[in-house]
């Protein structure tokens, strides 16, 4: 039995629709429906149009006459023309019929017109007769049109053919609605993925306003929303729960009681890992709001001219960080579960972005405080050092005047003590001034090529006297050719002096201090190894802090300012180098410095 002869055409149409899930399959289903109108109902041309977003009707399926198919398929016309057609039509039940004489009076472009001669019958079909069925959605809005032409018998259809045609129109409406829903879903999922991608990209941004501005348009378009706003909770200098970002630098003016409701609802949603809806068009299911809270929210929804809200918590890990609100108006359809799930994913992505911004703000604030403190400390050290310098110079001058004066034994010892401690204070002042200088951000490094081999030879001569006095041997392992580093020579010389003199100071008599200088790739390595007291693991943690002295009593008995290694560390940092230490208490220490090489 052929399809045309089927006793139950509806069964065949159900089979067509049951397999139509993808967009392409739905278009194929519409074509089969048009083919059915052509083959079963008996019209030479059947065309199905779909309403597009720009309020134009696009013909997506044509069956029958080849010339008609070539001219009509893909053609568009304004939705307003359909409204005009309906206004002049005779209603044959749900079908609309516009006779030729009315079409001639109105139509500027009649479109495709069949080249036929009407049959000799009072009920004859005329070339410009127009029979169509508007296709509507569940709320009665137009979504498309099923139009026919060229009845096989040349007559305007009787009630039986009208009934059969309307049956195909009903299936056309189902297929068109399914096609439009599929297209909307496909588009929104694509835009939602775009929005997620933007949010992930925005995660690299560390300014919250920039993050929200980057993703707002894609989120609104992706979800077919009328608008949106984002509320972030207090923390780390980021917007508090009284500031609500609505895009383009604006903030929503929301009553305080609603703000508090939103804060509590966001935390409940995040705890339950879900979104919430607020709409008079849908009954609350497992509502996140209490009844009185819900009524306050719905009253607010009415005031701002929307009909529904999709409420999405923002968070990262266990912490709820804010909420995202998407709105829709009366013209928009209600939120679907697919959209809710996609929005919840956005909430996770935005939550991570908010957390990153918050952490950045905290780190930035802490860094600024540390810089201010460091600047204050440097200025204090510099000021105190200068205040010490002049009196010390005066004391030393008077000590020199007293060198030729005859004093008793006690007076002589007192002068020696004064001179020794004055010299110690002078070294402390010099170290403090140097530390202030290398910490000064207003004094940038002026790097130039420095031959460290030449510097090491000069330092060896300086420290060698101190080593010889205690029978300590300094063994140098260095190449014969220059070893060049980029930096300022006085500062690099101070690094070598401090490290080698420390090794000598903390080594026992008759010990060996090994010094190695070498080039490794584009870096220069300088190493000092002693056989001295060694440094405990606890002391190594604070070894490069200003004024730190070892907890080892044997070390504290030896003179020092506690600034030598701090100066070394600051100089190495200024030169983009690294310093490390390996040591065990009682077994000596090894300090290794690496610096950028040159040449």
From TrEMBL:
Enzyme Commission code(s) on record: 2.7.13.3
The Gene Ontology terms for molecular function here are: phosphorelay sensor kinase activity
Q: Which UniProt keywords apply?
A: Kinase, Phosphoprotein, Transferase, Two-component regulatory system
Q: Where in this chain does the record put each Histidine kinase domain?
A: 383-599
Q: What is its main location?
A: membrane
InterPro entries membership: GAF, GAF-like_dom_sf, HATPase_C_sf, HATPase_dom, His_kinase_dom, HisK_dim/P_dom, HisK_dim/P_sf, Sensor_HK_Regulatory
* Pfam family name, one: HATPase_c
Q: Which SUPFAM superfamilies match?
A: ATPase domain of HSP90 chaperone/DNA topoisomerase II/histidine kinase, GAF domain-like, Homodimeric domain of signal transducing histidine kinase
Task: Establish whether keyword Protein biosynthesis is in the entry.
Answer: no
What does it catalyze?
Answer: ATP + protein L-histidine = ADP + protein N-phospho-L-histidine
EC main class here is transferase
> Where is the protein situated, by its record's location annotation?
Cell membrane
TM ranges are none
* Protein name as catalogued: histidine kinase
What organism does this protein naturally occur in?
Nocardioides guangzhouensis
């Amino acid at each position: 039995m052929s399809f045309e002869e089927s006793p139950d055409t509806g069964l065949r149409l159900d089979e067509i629709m049951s397999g139509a899930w993808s967009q392409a399959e739905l278009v194929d289903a519409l074509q089969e429906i048009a083919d059915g109108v052509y083959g079963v109902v008996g019209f030479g041309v059947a065309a199905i149009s779909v309403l597009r977003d720009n309020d134009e009707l696009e013909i997506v399926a044509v069956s029958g006459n080849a010339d008609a198919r070539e001219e009509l398929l893909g053609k568009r016309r304004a939705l307003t023309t359909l409204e005009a057609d309906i206004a002049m039509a005779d209603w044959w039940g749900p079908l609309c019929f516009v006779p030729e004489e009315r079409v001639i009076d109105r139509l500027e472009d009649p479109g495709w017109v069949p080249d036929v001669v009407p049959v000799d019958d009072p009920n004859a079909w005329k070339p410009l007769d127009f029979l169509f069925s508007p296709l509507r959605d569940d709320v009665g809005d137009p979504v498309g049109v099923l139009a026919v032409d060229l009845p096989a018998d040349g007559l305007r259809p009787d009630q039986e053919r009208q009934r059969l045609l309307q049956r195909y129109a009903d299936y056309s409406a189902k297929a068109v609605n399914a096609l439009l829903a599929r297209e909307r879903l496909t588009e929104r999922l694509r835009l939602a993925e775009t929005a997620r991608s933007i949010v992930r990209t925005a995660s690299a941004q560390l300014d919250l306003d920039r993050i929200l501005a980057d993703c707002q348009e894609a989120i609104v378009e992706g979800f077919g929303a009328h608008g949106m706003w984002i509320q972030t909770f207090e923390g780390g200098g980021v917007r508090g729960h009284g500031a609500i970002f609505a895009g383009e630098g604006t903030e929503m003016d929301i009553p305080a009681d609603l703000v508090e409701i939103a804060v509590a609802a966001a935390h409940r949603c995040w705890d339950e890992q879900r979104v919430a809806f607020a709409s008079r068009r849908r009954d609350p299911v497992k509502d996140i709001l209490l009844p009185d809270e819900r009524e306050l929210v719905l009253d607010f929804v009415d005031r701002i001219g929307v009909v529904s809200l999709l409420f999405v918590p923002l968070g990262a890990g266990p912490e709820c960080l804010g909420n995202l609100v998407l709105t829709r108006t009366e013209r928009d359809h209600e939120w679907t579960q697919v959209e809710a799930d996609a929005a919840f994913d956005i909430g996770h992505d935005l939550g991570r972005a908010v957390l990153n911004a918050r952490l950045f703000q905290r780190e930035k604030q802490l860094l600024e405080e540390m810089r201010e403190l460091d600047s204050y400390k440097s200025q204090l050290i510099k000021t105190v050092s200068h205040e010490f310098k002049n009196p010390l110079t005066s004391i030393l001058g008077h000590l020199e005047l007293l060198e030729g004066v005859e004093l008793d034994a006690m007076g002589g010892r007192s002068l020696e003590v004064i001179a020794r401690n004055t010299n110690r204070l002078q070294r402390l002042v010099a170290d403090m001034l140097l530390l202030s200088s290398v910490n000064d951000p207003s004094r940038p490094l002026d790097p130039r090529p420095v031959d460290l081999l030449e510097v090491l030879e000069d330092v060896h001569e300086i420290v060698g006297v101190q080593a010889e006095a205690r029978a300590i041997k300094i063994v140098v392992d260095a190449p014969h050719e220059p070893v060049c580093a980029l930096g300022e020579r006085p500062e690099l010389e101070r690094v070598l002096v401090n490290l080698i003199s420390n090794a000598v100071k903390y080594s026992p008599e008759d010990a060996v201090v090994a010094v190695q200088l070498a080039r490794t790739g584009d870096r220069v390595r300088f190493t000092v190894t002693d056989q001295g007291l060694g440094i405990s693991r606890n002391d190594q943690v604070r070894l490069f802090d200003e004024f730190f002295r070892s907890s080892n009593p044997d070390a504290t008995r030896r003179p020092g300012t506690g600034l030598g290694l701090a100066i070394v560390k600051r100089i190495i940092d200024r030169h983009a180098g690294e310093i490390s230490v390996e040591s065990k208490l009682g077994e000596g220490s090894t300090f290794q410095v690496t610096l950028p090489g040159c040449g």
